[in-house]
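Hi team,

Filling in the usual template for the complex we talked about on Friday. All components are listed, including any nucleic acid strands or ligand strings, so the model treats them as one assembly.

SUBMITTER: L.P.
PURPOSE: interface mapping
COMPONENTS: four
RESIDUES: 416
SEQUENCES:
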Amino acid sequence: MARMSSVDRRGELIHAALRVIAAKGVAGATTRAIVAEAGMSLASFHYAFTSRDEMMRELIAFVVENETNAVFAEIDFGRDIRETLRNGLQGYFLNVQADPGHEQVMFELLQYALRTPDLADLAREQYARYHAAVIELLHAAEKNANVVWSLPVEEIARTIVAITDGLTLAWLADRDSAASARVMDFAADSLARLATVSEPVRTKEHVL
Amino acid sequence: MARMSSVDRRGELIHAALRVIAAKGVAGATTRAIVAEAGMSLASFHYAFTSRDEMMRELIAFVVENETNAVFAEIDFGRDIRETLRNGLQGYFLNVQADPGHEQVMFELLQYALRTPDLADLAREQYARYHAAVIELLHAAEKNANVVWSLPVEEIARTIVAITDGLTLAWLADRDSAASARVMDFAADSLARLATVSEPVRTKEHVL
DNA sequence: GTCTATAAAGTGATAGAC
DNA sequence: GTCTATCACTTTATAGAC
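RESULT (copied from the run log):
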């Protein structure tokens, strides 16, 4: 087989590992399954990585890094803040339904990280990134709808992440899409209450 | 070693397995680790269970069955519905903080069930029970605070389970107790809005 | 750098003595 | 019923030919 730079091979193995994990779970991602998926020999794995643990650490760092806010990025700002929130949540959820495996993998990797002492920092970072992504979104929504949040955005972001995680877990278990959609409606309503119409910037004579 | 009825030995092995899972995760719960914890020989395991899979199925059914609403059972009804909700959520969360391993095990078992085709029904049942337990609580709170819920209790229950699951996952990752507590306060406020003061049963002359 | 072959340890499950 | 010993297999990791 053709030569390949070390970084390329590492990346290729990580992507192959992610495909294997999606199909068979973390437990099924053996070095043999991964090299078979990548079309390499077993020895090539250990040429690229000193151990399976090392690869798993790099893999988790990779997914945490690349857990794009793609879902949120393509958010559809509606007429008001409630619609923005609703669109964001429903958009996220459509994505979960379209590719349930992806979120399941993220949950599995989170638990793997929580179980592996060396990887605890990655679990923390994973949530820091989720929260940061949502905070950014909340600021964008704030500007777009001309409102200000009456609670710290950190707090609102944590609530949104909790709702999406919780809804996703329950949906993965019972696949009740209708019930999940209604919960998101309620969540959007409740969160929208936290936005108050911002005073437009005016001169002093305009009081009330 | 003394003889033991088959059901006793199965129960003992399941409890030993739960201790092993708490300490080392589902992946670490090998038949050898389990019998070592239970103080039995490896052969005894296969005398009680035909296979490890059979035991895992029974173990999950057991924890789902016994995922008592203990947390919720000892709920402290406050002065009003908001306090009841707040006490319920904070009470649950104190329990998570006191024994983080327990919830982590529940999440791991959920994912194990989701990955094992034969066990998908157990995952569904797990959430059906969570939802049912919270619904029962919502009815109790309704009576206690003399209010009626303006949304179907199924919907409210799903929201509460989603919030608790989501908060627990984030807390397991970053251990930010203060932030979690604030989210629960907001959740209690939002949910309390769904309770409207119920019309006391009166005769017709009392209009408004 | 990439391969085959194999080492060393761990896995679930079973046979057969007692 | 309970044990020891072992089978058959899989795992990660490495040695050594090319």
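MY TAKE: The longest strand of chain A covers residues 147-149. Chain A touches chain B at residues 25, 27, 104, 107-108, 110-111, 114-115, 123-124, 126-128, 151, 154-155, 158-159, 161-167, 169-170, 172-174, 179-180, 182-183, 186-187, 190, 193-194 (CB under 8 Å).

Thanks, L.
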